[in-house]
Automatic annotation (TrEMBL):
PROSITE patterns: ZF_GRF. Residues 40-82 form the GRF-type domain. Residues 1-21 have a biased composition (Low complexity). Residues 1-30 are annotated as: Disordered. The chain crosses the membrane at residues 152-173. It holds the Pfam family Zn_ribbon_GRF. It comes from the Eukaryota. GO terms for molecular function: zinc ion binding. The lineage of its organism: Eukaryota, Viridiplantae, Streptophyta, Embryophyta, Tracheophyta. PANTHER family: ZINC ION-BINDING PROTEIN. This is GRF-type domain-containing protein. Keywords: Coiled coil, Membrane, Metal-binding, Transmembrane, Transmembrane helix, Zinc, Zinc-finger. Residues 94-149 form a coiled coil.
Length: 174
């Protein structure tokens, strides 16, 4: 299983620490969830990482937990064998397909969020318009009520004037 030594440190560059974030597939178990523990020169358990590089896609390795920091003792050891010339491009293609799908999913989620925000804005506009409509309706009703009263007043006025004229005519005829 363990096929290499700390001489191939360069293969672990940029994978340590950020390995979990960059992994195309989430880790099934944590980097320290293996037994018995493999210890580095610091006498500490070396975490198990998985590289997704072009040279070694999906290949696991142990690395000093202080990798790429001033406390790094340089410990590195492969766990899995090297991929065959057939397996390597296949694993790289799968990795790239997963990354592409993740990118597309992230873009779609962004578009969904934008659409939700726009919908929410439009709903607010519709609510405001409905409020305005209700207020206008109330004002219209009040105006109609006033006009109705004025109509009755006009009619009474005309009747009074006509009665006055009629009395006037009757008295002048006497
Ligand atoms: Zn160490």
């Amino acid at each position: 299983m363990a096929s290499s030594s700390s001489s191939s440190r360069e293969s672990s560059r940029s994978q340590v620490g950020s390995g979990e974030q960059q992994a195309p597939v989430p880790y099934r178990v944590g980097p320290s969830a293996y037994r018995p523990p493999v210890r580095c020169q610091c006498n500490q358990m070396a975490p198990c990482w998985t590289t997704s590089s072009d040279e070694n896609p999906g290949r696991r390795y142990y690395r000093c937990r202080y990798g790429l920091t001033p406390g790094d003792c340089g410990f590195f050891r492969w766990i899995d064998r090297q991929a065959t010339p057939y397996e390597r491009p296949l694993l790289c293609d799968l990795r790239d397909a997963i990354r592409q799908m993740k990118r597309e999913k992230a873009e779609e989620e962004q578009q969904m969020q934008l659409a939700r925000r726009q919908l929410s804005d439009q709903m607010q506009v519709i609510q405001q318009l409905e409020k305005d409509k209700d207020e206008l309706k109330k004002k219209m009703e009040q105006m109609e009520l006033k006009q109705g009263k004025n109509g009755w007043l006009c009619l009474i006025y005309v009747v009074v004037v006509l009665l006055g004229l009629w009395f006037g005519l009757v008295y002048s005829a006497l």
